[in-house]
Amino acid sequence: MSGACIRDVVVTVVAVPYRPGVGAIVTAGLVLTEARHVLVEVRTDDGVVGLGEAVPRPSIYGETVESIVVALQQLLVPPLLGMSPLDVERIWQRWERVVGNTTAKAALDMACHDIQGKLAGLPLHRMLGGWAGGRIPLTMPVAIADDMVEQAKTAVAGGYGAVKLKVGKDLRRDVATVEAVRSAIGPDPMLYADANQGYGTSDALEAARQFGSLGVDLLEEPVSAGNTAARVQLAREAHVPLLLDETLMTQSDLLREIQLGTPSAISVRSPRSGITGSRKVVALAEAAEVACLVGSHRELGVATIASAHLAAGFRAMRLPAELGVSTLLSHSLLTEPLRIDDGWLTLPDGPGLGIELDRAAVSRHRVGDAIAIAEAVR
Questions:
Q1: Which of 116, 119, 132, 121 is nearest to 275 (CA)?
Q2: 66 in Cβ contact with 20 (< 8 Å)
Q3: CB 259: neighbour CB atoms within 10 A?
């Protein structure tokens, strides 16, 4: 491998709308009308470029587009300039005293792993373990809307073997929707519900009881992350196995929940923990015999493909990846469209992430000027 060092980082804010007819994406915790994200390009002194993507979710991580850009400029990029993109543990050590800024760190980590794959001449999923080869099954997430049943039917008819329903705003409506969807798609497709921490304890317990009787396979984040007692009670009653996501901000969070016996499955996200942190989370889950799936923050093409490499790399990724939702965006910003057919995603076979940015598309969707960061901390 090359001895290349990181020369500079280019940061670009983009805003990509959803396809016509999709409308707003509604969950218990947010409403989205576009993907307003931050792209990073980590460039080495011998010309290799790694791509990453930061996804602002103020209600989950406390980060906005503006805070991500400032954190990159002032806190995260300067310490890694001149370092090798191979030395990700050293890079994360330099960020130890930068609290939070989760997705900004993850984007840079993603880009460093893209470079590693390019230097090795291997697709990232093979460097991670190569478990699934180059093709992974997908889940189609369905946001809160009047046509959730039709969306679920369309997904299953299109080859998706799993459907995830957003719930958590109105228990009575949620139960009716789950019942209608299960009836419409039949007993075979995997069906799970994500409350995005939207229920209180009593509603969560009632939701679990009713969802269990309706054939729901997993219940994701039914209560707030701080409501540990309710999660323990839900796990003990075992009406529906729990899938944990936002509760697991750190490896220590996962270790605590494993010790409490709450998760049957966990969601792993490259925009939250990067590749470095995700590998460690997967290892913890596998040791505890907890299933993993790759979750989605409705990423653009860069982070979608990074997450797909995670899903294809590890044996513990036993459940379909939630990356079908990427089809709702009007553009991936990649030169080659995502290859999704019959509910399966085929990964690119080039080195690293195996993708290139569509520069014309990035220019059309860019918000403000791109920013080059090339000055190290003195």
A1: 116
A2: no
A3: 9
Q: What is the total count of domains within the chain?
A: 2
Q: Which residue is listed with tokens 């089809």?
A: 327
Identify whether 145 is part of a domain.
Answer: yes
Q: Which residue has the tokens 């994360």?
A: 92
The predicted-structure confidence for 128-186, as pLDDT tens digits, reads as follows 999 998 999 999 999 999 999 999 999 999 999 999 999 999 999 999 999 999 999 99
Q: Which domain holds residue 366?
A: 6-121+356-373
Q: What is the DSSP string of 133-158?
A: TTEEEBEEEE-SSTTHHHHHHHHHHT
Please check whether residues 148 and 100 belong to one and the same domain: no
What is the CA 295 to chain-centroid distance, rounded?
A: 4
Q: Are residues 108 and 132 in the same domain?
A: no
The strand pairing partners of 341, in sequence order, are: 344
By the 8 A CB rule, do 159 and 341 touch?
yes
Q: What phi and psi values does residue 178 have, to the nearest 5 degrees?
A: -60, -45
- pTM of the predicted structure, to 2 decimals: 0.95
> Largest Cα–Cα distance in the chain?
63
Local structure of 323: helix, strand or coil? coil
The pLDDT assigned to 265 comes to 98
User: Phi-psi bin for 328: left (phi > 0), alpha (psi -120 to 50), beta?
Assistant: alpha
From the list 222, 229, 279, 262, the residue with the least C-alpha distance to 246 is 222
Say yes or no: 361 and 290 in one domain: no
Report the alpha-carbon distance of residue 106 to residue 234 in Å, rounded. Answer: 31
Pairing, β 371-373 against β 339-341: unpaired
CA distance 309 to 346: 10
Helix axis angle, 201-213 to 171-185, nearest 10°: 20
Of 134, 137, 84, give the one whose Cα is nearest residue 353.
134
Q: Which of 300, 214, 269, 231 is nearest to 34 (CA)?
A: 300
pLDDT of 378 > 50? The answer is no
Cβ pair 291, 285 in contact under 8 A? yes
